[in-house]
Design a protein that fits this description.
The complex is a heterodimer of chains A (94) and B (137). Helices cover 74% and strands 0% of the residues of chain A. With 94 residues, chain A is mainly alpha-helical. Chain B has 137 residues and is mainly alpha-helical. Chain B has a two-stranded antiparallel ribbon. Classes of the chains: A mainly alpha (94), B mainly alpha (137). Chains A and B meet through α2 and α3 of A and α2 and α5 of B.
Chain lengths: 94, 137
């Protein structure tokens, strides 16, 4: 993965963490790598993997018993995917 | 039919009490898992499991049928007709053999990149975490 994509993903993660600072109770170690995997799946046009990661996001909400906030995780996934795609577009990678 | 001495006003507290009791029973108590939140992941795992099982030429026809039947049962537990919540003691035993085979197939799939293999194995780890969290309540 080249430097421009790494920078784009890093910027996305930083924004995403800020976006979720009020929601993310008990940060999950997986979330960092999930953003990277999502970026790779977006870059490769791998829609099956994007759906797998979406399902993982949703189940993590249940792991942390965020029952009142479950809907936020669907929003989170959409937001991250959009942000990652925008970052990759800006880097000319998709 | 009209029951002597039973008016709507008198029956209302009992109806409300029964409704509240029902909510407490099926509203995601200890050990309960919200089906809608895990269904996509369960179905994703089962779907990939089925692809691997169908492609596994080392299995007998009986074994393939057995494994696909187990997978179908698992998907039924979280399917459209499933209740809103399912107890971990129901879901985990049904999911475990599927997850064990899924992990073995994914770990041994040489066509996957290391990143994709890790991403796919994360699915079963997350689902096991759901079970642990449900049991910890």
């Amino acid at each position: 993965m080249d430097a421009s994509i790494k920078a784009a993903i890093a910027a996305t993660k930083a924004e995403w963490k800020e976006f979720f600072s009020g929601t993310l109770a008990g940060a999950n170690a997986f979330l960092e790598e999930m953003v990277t995997d999502l970026a790779t799946a977006v870059m490769n046009g791998d829609t099956a993997m994007q759906e797998t990661i979406r399902a993982q996001f949703r189940a993590i909400a249940e792991t942390h018993r965020l029952k009142a906030k479950n809907a936020a995780w669907d929003v989170a996934f959409a937001w991250i995917r959009t942000a990652v795609r925008a970052a990759l577009l800006a880097a000319g990678k998709v | 039919m009209k029951v002597p001495g039973l008016s709507i006003a008198r029956a209302l507290p009992f109806v409300l009490a029964a409704t509240l009791a029902s909510c407490a029973l099926f509203g995601g108590g200890a050990g309960e898992i919200k089906v809608s939140e895990v269904a996509p992941l369960v179905e994703d795992i089962a779907g990939r499991h089925d692809l691997y099982v169908n492609a596994d030429t080392a299995l007998t026809a009986a074994a393939v049928a057995q494994f696909l039947s187990e997978s179908l049962h698992l998907c039924d537990l979280v399917g459209e007709d499933a209740p809103k919540y399912i107890h971990v003691d129901v879901l985990a035993p049904a999911a475990t053999p599927i997850m064990v085979r899924y992990d073995a197939y994914v770990a041994g799939d040489s066509t996957l990149t290391a990143q994709k293999r890790t991403a796919l194995l994360r699915s079963t780890t997350i689902l096991r975490d759901v079970f642990v969290a449900a049991r910890a309540e």
